[in-house]
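Sequence only, no structure available. Ideas?
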Amino acid sequence: MLVSYQKVDDIGVISIDNPPVNALSQGVRQGILDAIKSAEDDDIKAIVILCEGRTFIAGADISEFGKPVQEPTLPQLNTAIESSGKSVIAAIHGTALGGGFELALSCHYRCAQASASVGLPEVTLGLLPGAGGTQRVPRLIGVKAALDLMTTGNKAGANEARDLGLIDRVLKGDLKEAAMDYARELIAKGAGLRRVRDISIPATSFGKEAFEDYRQQLNKRKRGQEAPQKIVSCVEAAMDKPFEEGLAYERSCFVECVQSEQSAALRHIFFAERQAPKVAGIAKSVVPRPVQRVGIIGAGTMGGGIAMSFANAGIPVTLLDASEEGLERGLALIDKNYGISVSKGKLSEEQATEREALISGTVDYEELVDVDLVIEAVFESMDVKRQVFSRLDEVCKQGAILATNTSYLDVNEIAGSTSRPQDVVGLHFFSPANVMRLLEVVKAESTADEVITTAMALGKRIGKVPVLAGVCYGFIGNRMLRQYAREAQLCMIEGAEPAQIDGVLTNFGMAMGPLSVGDLAGLDIGYKARQALTDEQKGDPRSYCIADALVELGRLGQKAGAGYYKYDPDTRARSTDPVVLDVIREQARKHGVQRRELSDEEILDRHLLALINEGFRILEEGIAQRPGDIDVVYVHGYGFPSYRGGPMFYASQRGLGNVLGSIEKLYGATGEPYWAPAPLLKKLVASDLTLDDWMAGNG
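Reply:
I predicted one. Tokens follow.
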């Protein structure tokens, strides 16, 4: 039974039991409505709504999105609750999120356990609170606090929510007993009905200019996203319109969001993230190995960031470097990073001290004898990595997982330098490793299922989004990035300026343009890597000659104050540099390129289609398990806008036939083999199949 009702003395208790998170399915909504009606007819003085299991209602039933709405709708249910002639008290434990919290807001009073949290995270799915949230929250806590809560999607703990005015009482002890006591207290005081809809928002509390300023701030923080701006409009309506009209306006905006491409994309990413850690073909009986202590080789920026990722999850780390000086630098950088987190209010001094205490340093491999997992994060050289793994093979206990953080190199070859290739796996973190959520888990030929299962579980444990990848040059993300970076270089030499290229991609929604990224990372990194390659391995000189020429002029990027752009030494603000434009023209002349004007549309198309075409090759080769995995990699590792769903989802929205036609035009115009359409793409279009159809046939 999803919803039950019982009378306890003079209080009616409505209990919801829809595991795992008590989602507001149609059956739950109907059950609550029926229970409210029963309570109305009963000889009671107040009603308490609570949930069984580990949480209060954690949100709407997302599987109902896009389907015909079944009554009672949540707005109808909330109206019935708020209109009840008897005081209704929501008793919250766990999390009350989205529609669950909107239901609580329609109650006359709200109480919660101290460990509970509440929030309206709809914006993260390209939606807005559509069952009264945008109308009730500003009435309770004021416009600015309401806008902050809803446009960020952040949760508030019970005490913070009480201080804001979202919750009336923080409870101690057993939820049901404490909530009943609170209900009796309200009855004894004659507290009566307190309907949020009857609260008015002072007209002078947030004027037109304040709304305009807030919109402009949102444009910077949530660039290109529609739902946050609609939330602002709904809150404006809460001030300007009667409650019922405000509700109707909110509902119309909600429906627009549900039907939007942005929300479809964000919901796709939401589900893709949850699907990515699941590995096809591994029996459910395979369990992860215990990981209680981790070793990390290399105390540079990457090694230190990885160490922080584990320490932040409460896992002790031994950080090893080749020299005492390198180790001291690495530990000092970790200390500095924790200090920054404290200064920004993200951690308390005590939390930072506790986490930092979990990281110890050494220069002696023998200190790694008892670790359950060791991650190598040294220079990207096969010879160096083979030496490290040979040494780890000697000192690490049997059953320890030996992982490499390589970005490109062959994990099979690295595993071959040990006597236990079944224990070797790629764990490719993204920089800065303590911040970036993506973790590519690279399965080599001999990697044991148990090791993959452990890596996936551990990725989630340390707050990452783990995605399985097969062995190839660059795995999923960096293999695709090469195609994207190539187009940035070719568009530049053919006629576009750096600012135009970066502007096109950031206007599309990318976190940064490809040339700005190059300057941030340092142009010398790619330059040094190319020095070790043959001319054939380097590829088309037009795709790197400008970058090389800039490095040879000492323009290494932001750290040198100049790269593709000039950087202000104080503010780091960038500006176009005529020197760079001269270098581009000179390289075009040298390589016989006739420069022309490139449209923004051509620049965008070439970058996106390069990603998509390679994505189809990666799928066909089995390097990625699913199209959604590729999307997760690009959203969480490379700044692809989440509200566009990732390259493969974008391709599906655009239409695979359209995508194939555009790639075929580029292939016909250039004759370049990299523009040959991926066979899987051609096959799907010829058979009139979608990527979903392909997944269904390969699942």
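The chain has a mean pLDDT of 95.
Hope that gets you unstuck.
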